[in-house]
Amino acid sequence: MSNGSDPAAVLDAIGRAQDAFEMVGRGRTVFEEGISADADWETQLTKACRLLEVVDTLQAQDGYYTAVIEVCFGAIERSIEAYALSMTNDTLQDFQDHQFSYDRAHQIGLFERDTAVEMKELYSENRTESYYGGGRPTEEQAEAMTELATAVHQFVVSQIREGGVCLCA
Question: Distance between the two ends of the chain, CA-based, in angstroms?
Fold first, then answer.
């Protein structure tokens, strides 16, 4: 808790952010275009689509490797979650741990065990290092993660019985 010495600008911004997430005092709420609100799996799938669009935008600007890698992991997780929510009785609350997505991908038959383990290891060893650690992400890493996120997303879309939700086509 603040003892009164924290900058007013920061404290004011925290209050505005809290209000924004609670949708307090905002009048007409403007939601992000393209994110489906019909079903949780559709929401997660369209979030993945939008994240991949951001990756393309960042890649076109060249040099934002940390952001590209971070967004790619997000797109992978949202894609796996979309499949799990669509094909099982899983709920969004089941996916509060990032690494659970990779475990679940194998448990529900989306990926073979070795593939799921490799993706989980990629996350645990490299995402943490590139985002929180002292490592400096490279162009090659960003490009490889873009390729992986796109491949996972396309595979997930092909495996979900109900089509026509993906925004990427």
Answer: 47
CB 82 within 8 A of CB 101: no
Taking the CA of residue 29 as centre, how many other CA atoms within 13 Å lie in the half-sphere pointing to its CB? 9
Q: Residue 14 domain-assigned?
A: no
Per-residue pLDDT of the chain (169 residues; tens, 9 = 90+): 567 799 999 999 999 889 888 887 767 888 999 999 999 999 999 999 999 999 999 999 989 999 999 999 999 999 999 999 999 999 999 998 888 999 999 999 999 999 999 999 999 888 777 777 778 889 999 999 999 999 999 999 999 988 889 999 6
Q: What is the CATH number of the domain that holds 53?
A: 1.20.120.330
Compute the distance between CA of residue 3 and CA of residue 30 in angstroms, rounded to an integer.
35
> Any residues with CB less than 8 A from the CB of 30 and at least 6 apart, and which?
none
Residue 16 near residue 22, CB atoms below 8 Å? no
Q: Which domain holds residue 89?
A: 36-159
In a domain, 168, yes or no: no
Query: What's the pTM value of the predicted model, to 2 decimals?
Result: 0.89
